[in-house]
Write a structure and sequence with these properties.
The chain has a seven-stranded mixed beta sheet, sandwiched between helices. It is α/β, with parallel strands linked by helices. It contains five helices and seven strands, in the order E-H-E-H-E-E-H-E-H-H-E-E. Helix content is 33%, strand content 26%. Helix 3 crosses helix 5. The longest helix is centred in the middle third of the chain and has 20 residues. The protein has a single domain, classed as Rossmann fold (3-Layer(aba) Sandwich). The protein binds S-adenosylmethionine.
């Protein structure tokens, strides 16, 4: 998070957990989700975030209007990976940051090693915590592989930091070059 961040967007906010957490650090946070029902949970949680129902790919935000554009477990719901990443970049101010935690499909031996670690971790979490039941559609398996994500990020977000995580996830952090 840039220390100077004044506003943030959570794309595919779901029940709004990330947006509410961002609001602890940033004065203005918007959470957008295409699904009206999940937003009801978010609205019930806090009114300190601006909740929007709509498609993040087409919603009429002004370009370059957010210091932080974040998204968790959402971009595999969207039809085209590269144009989704390009849309997130379009919404980010120069010097701002995109932070994505995404899900992808395993295709290479190393992916399956991470998957195995994920299974162990998932068992541990299931013992420690309850899971969130939501009404939003589930997209599984993800349409793109981890390798696809790395390639798309290299093309659309050059210099992005890509990290493979357990629990079937990866993270992408990219700072938009200043003008
Ligand atoms: C798996 S949920 C993740 C929710 C939340 N980010 C989390 O981590 O708990 C994916 C969310 O993305 C939303 N979504 C899918 N396509 C979208 C789009 N084009 N614009 C906005 N939200 C979208 C779905 O409605 C769903 O709530």
């Amino acid at each position: 998070m840039p220390a100077s961040a004044r506003n943030a967007l959570d794309v595919g906010t779901g029940n709004g957990l990330l947006a509410a957490a961002l609001r602890e650090r940033v004065p203005s946070v918007t959470g957008i989700d295409i699904d009206a029902a999940v937003l009801e949970y978010a609205r019930a949680e806090t009114d300190r975030v601006t909740w929007l129902q709509g498609d993040a790919l087409t919603y009429p935000f002004r370009p370059a209007s957010f210091d932080v554009v974040a998204s968790v477990a959402t971009i595999h719901h969207m039809p085209d990976l590269e144009s989704t990443l390009a849309r997130l970049a379009e919404l980010t101010v120069p010097g701002g940051v995109i932070a994505v935690v995404g899900l992808a499909r395993s295709t290479r031996p190393i992916d399956f090693v991470y998957d195995l670690a994920g299974l162990v971790e998932q068992r541990r979490y299931r013992r420690l915590a309850s899971s969130w039941e939501h009404s939003a559609p589930v997209v599984w398996p993800p349409p793109h592989s981890y390798a696809d994500v790395r390639r798309a990020a290299a093309r659309v977000l050059p210099g992005a930091r890509w990290t493979r995580l357990a629990l079937w996830r990866y993270s992408l952090i990219w700072t938009k070059p200043s003008l």
